[in-house]
Amino acid sequence: MRKGLLIVGIGAVMAVSGCSVQRAQTAEAAKTQLVGMSRENILSCMGAPTSRATEGRTEVWTYVSAPGTYDSVTTGGSNFAFTKSRARNCTVNVVMSDGRVSRINYLGRTGGLLTAGEQCAYAVEGCMAQ
């Protein structure tokens, strides 16, 4: 019985972590695939930015992507337990020069050790199909 539960548990962890890895790959690919897109394309696939900054012919559009994933660590014995959680989030800065994307930057607690950037995929994935 315990062996069966262990196998099911390992399978569930692998399935969930597979999604995180895929989102991290999507976010990494967006850093190159979105370069060259027009401001109109970005607006249509990412929506209105949370904020905008302009300096000369360069604009930075900022998007916040935070669907509420948490890193959790639990330690303890039979009589004591300690849990610490930290929210993951991503601030996506879309840098545009002359109306076209020139760079994508990610800031924040964007993912886990092997899934850096995974939280950023939520903001950019709509543009990846174009």
Structure summary:
With 130 residues, this protein is an alpha+beta fold. 37% of the residues lie in helices and 33% in strands.
What fraction, in percent, of the residue positions are helical? 25-40%
Largest sheet: 4 strands, antiparallel
Number of helical segments?
3
Q: What's the end-to-end separation, in Å?
A: 48 Å
Overall, the morphology is elongated
Please tell me the overall pLDDT.
Answer: 78
Unreliable residue runs: 5-17, 69-73
- Radius of gyration, rounded? 19 Å
**Secondary-structure-derived class:** alpha+beta
Number of strands: 6
Q: Helix and strand string, N-terminal first?
A: HHEEEEEEH
| Domains (count) | 1
Which strand order spans the largest sheet, edge to edge or round the barrel? Answer: 1-2-5-6
Share of β-strand residues: 25-35%
Task: Describe the 3D structure.
The chain is α+β, with helices and mostly antiparallel strands and 130 residues long. It has one domain. Helix content is 37%, strand content 33%. It has helices spanning 2-33, 39-46, 121-128, and strands spanning 51-55, 58-65, 70-76, 81-87, 90-97, 100-107. The strands form 2 sheets. The chain has a 4-stranded antiparallel β-sheet with strand order 1-2-5-6. A two-stranded antiparallel ribbon has the order 3-4. Strand 5 and strand 6 form a beta hairpin. Helix 1 (2-33) packs across helix 3 and helix 2 (39-46) crosses helix 3. It is elongated, with a radius of gyration of 19 Å. The protein starts with a helix and ends with a helix.
